């Protein structure tokens, strides 16, 4: 059954204040989609087992929210890498293996998918360059955030005028990890101990991916904030890989976060 509601994405106050109406963005929820069952709502995940026609219609609705056709919605084949790609006016719908994309082309809609991992939207309104990145623990640790900023600089952006916001993602209260996970981070940087607190399970910890993400953005020299929204407990609004796993469900959907330079 079709959901009569329209997509109603969440906005970042920081991005909105910095960019005004020149750059449009939204962190989309499950609201306003055609899918049903496990995928109820605005599932845009082509990697899910949802009906492909419904997924494509959901993607079309996202593009339409920006006033664009589906062909202008650019996404990548996300592989938890540190890689960022540049897309432009010749974008042909290809989805290269990468976890971030940037552009200076008005009208293109850059989208990243997530279901607990962090969707980060970037904007340099002064130089009219935007970016979108997908950062789970691996991407955040290996440099996808910094590489997105560098790719934006290649298009003329300046770090001091870039703003970024982390959207709905899993919070520390819902992200339990084992000792080998902690060791990986502490081996990388001893100060990363601060992102872990003991859990109720002996030898395990609760990991603050949201804080790590925002801290790395700020260390890279951009203004950054987090929406502070956790995907795990809010099944009405968000898909969650970890919640699906805990509930022993066979599959899950993905929500999208997207940004576009408004065409004049």
Description:
There is one protein chain. The protein is of the alpha+beta class. The protein has a domain at 13-159 and 235-261: CNF1/YfiH-like putative cysteine hydrolases (4-Layer Sandwich), CATH 3.60.140. 25% of the residues lie in helices and 22% in strands. It contains seven helices and 13 strands. It has helices at 13-19, 52-65, 137-142, 144-154, 179-188, 209-219, 241-246, and strands spanning 23-27, 73-74, 84-86, 100-103, 109-114, 118-124, 129-135, 163-166, 176-177, 196-198, 205-207, 223-226, 255-261. The strands form three sheets. It has a six-stranded mixed beta sheet, with helices on both faces. It has a four-stranded mixed beta sheet with strand order 1-13-5-2. Strand 6 (118-124) and strand 7 (129-135) form a beta hairpin. The longest helix is centred in the N-terminal third of the chain and has 14 residues, at 52-65. It is globular, with a radius of gyration of 18 Å. The mean pLDDT is 96.
Strand order of the largest sheet: 3-4-7-6-8-12
- Structural category is alpha+beta
**CATH architecture field of the domain at 13-159 and 235-261:** 4-Layer Sandwich
First-to-last CA distance: 37 Å
Low-confidence runs of at least 5 consecutive residues: none
User: Would you identify the CATH H-level superfamily of the domain at 13-159 and 235-261?
Assistant: CNF1/YfiH-like putative cysteine hydrolases
